[in-house]
Amino acid sequence: MKKILLLLLFFIFSSYYAESHPHIFIKTGVTVCFSNNTINKLKIEFEFDKVFSQELLQTFDKNKNKIFDESEIKNIEEKAFSNLVNYNYFIYITDNEKKITSDNIANFTSSYKDGVVTYYFEIITNINITETQKTVKIAAYDHSYYFSVEINSVNFENNHFISSNYEIIEDKKQAFYYNQIYPDCLILNLSK
After folding, report:
1. Exposure b/e, 120-158, CB count within 10 A at least 16 = b
2. d(CA 35, CA 26)
3. Number of domains within the chain
């Protein structure tokens, strides 16, 4: 009886832990784009791990040439990207502690190179920098922890009139998955 109970406990806890870790890994690049005194958009790159990239390639590269053509990219957008609106595209933006939605998306495309699929898209933000000092946070994570999302590169475009510095932290204020996981958070300190 003890052996059966131990075996049962093993299966319960092993299945719990098997579901509690990420299955897909994303390296995220963020380019902050300025227009005068505004962050008008964020250019986002999602670089997927090689295992998931192969699944995407097998599913969407219909002609098997390892290049996503226009119709294949449209199919990826419709069937594998657009649903991310339900997950805020894994990008959470706050402007001086005010949440900004990430649902205004433009210019989606995708590519395959060296065994890796990458999504490219833009989030239209229009965050005005009218104050002398402003803090904008951009966190990247999946609440369900099915995807592991990390920020691995940051760039700026057209920030000629804005003084900026940044850091990437693990943000304990945005802890998720039973408050055990702290997401990567890009903190921008901006001033005119």
Report:
1. ebbbebebebeeeebebbbbbbbeebebbbebeebebee
2. 28
3. 1
CATH number at residue 47: 2.70.170
Maximum CA extent, the chain: 73
**Structural domain contains residue 86:** yes
Question: In the prediction, which pLDDT does 63 show?
Answer: 94
Give per-residue burial for 69-88: e unless 16+ CB within 10 Å, then b: eeebbebbbeebbeebeebb
Q: Is residue 18 part of a domain?
A: no
**Beta strand pairing call for 147-157 and 98-100:** unpaired
| Structure confidence at residue 1 (pLDDT) | 44
What is the extent of the structural domain holding 39?
A: 23-191
Asked whether residue 145 is assigned to any structural domain, the reply reads yes
Pairing of strands 38-48, 24-35: antiparallel
Q: Residue 157 corresponds to which tokens in the numbers above?
A: 């475009």
pLDDT value of position 134? 84
Series of mean pLDDT values for 10-residue runs along the chain (192 residues): 38 44 94 90 98 96 95 96 95 90 92 97 90 86 94 90 84 90 92 76
pTM of the predicted protein model? 0.86
Residue 10 maps to a domain: no
